[in-house]
Hints:
Rossmann fold, 3 domains, Immunoglobulin-like, 6-stranded mixed beta sheet, 5-stranded antiparallel beta sheet, elongated, 8 helices, alpha+beta
Amino acid sequence: MPTRAGWAGVVFGVFILIVARLFGLLELFVIGSSSIVAPIVATVAVHRRSHVPQIVRTTEPRRPSVDQPLTVEIAFHALSRTIPYEVRESVGDGLLATTSLPPLRTGDTRRMTIDVPTTRRGIIEIGPTTFRYGDPLGLAQRVRTEESRTRVIVHPRRTPTTTPHLDHSRGLLIDALRRATIDTPVDREFRGIREYEPGDDARRVNWKASAKRDALLVNEFDPESSVILQIVLDVSPSRHDEGTFETAVSIAASLLDSYGPVTTRTMLCFGGTVIDDTNPNIGLDRLALAELDDGSDGSSITPIDTPDPSAVVARIVVTGWSDRTLMASLTHFPARGSAGVLITCRPCELMTPPGWTKLQCPDIAAFARAWPRFVHAARVDGS
């Protein structure tokens, strides 16, 4: 179609033709006719049959975290000869990247790289791609749009975290889980004797062996290291504002993506969703899209059934701030064979139920500093 300059030429040409008619000037007639014909010829020329290159997008990394650099590479593959184009790529909320694409021969490839900011979690949509071609005088242009889009999921901001494991980690939560193994409903086979460590149940002390060694020794039983980590994200609007919810999502994501022995089973629970999968990316994808539940009545924290009754359960509830409704709901979680930690983004003045401890983390940096007191990696020699 004609550009603004092309339409201006047509209007100018019509005006000149009227003047030429009034005064009978042949020269003005030629000028006016040329001004009208030129945009028409340019429009026909740019709309002749042409091909656009095939588009292939790749992203690095495939699943970035908030504030992690995201690079998008767009490859233009020519399946047949192409004309020169001005290419515009839509990214996210209206961000445009442009480049000039020269004529390509069959089989040629050109690449375009875009650095995309990841300032918030969620989905970034890349595309569509617009190809523009115009005549040398700028009188007409043709626009062709390739509607393909690529969706990139931006995961929540995370901090390195250790997976709870009875044999390979230490901390307040680990001590509580070791005490809880006494109450797990399963017959255990004797595995051996080791030195007493703070937090060990006194009923495990082997007094006969301790007397011979002149040191406290405790019995170990299998399967002691079977742990299920339940991460419960509170999505009730009554206990969150925008800032605390983002912090809570980041803490839940850090726990879900924790490192350590793979024998610990991880479950993610929020808003009626339960994700029990060994691949943390599945849970992180869901957390990237997590929102407050406007339909929640304030009692959204409910017990989650565990798939393995022989395992001890580490329950981590993450919320903005506590209230009596939340504390009452925690009492419904089974206390036998489990230990719980309530993580709040604001100070918690209420007493937690038996079997629960509390941790205040106003931001993800505070969580990174405080969490090692509950779980941290142990040295290989056990010290």
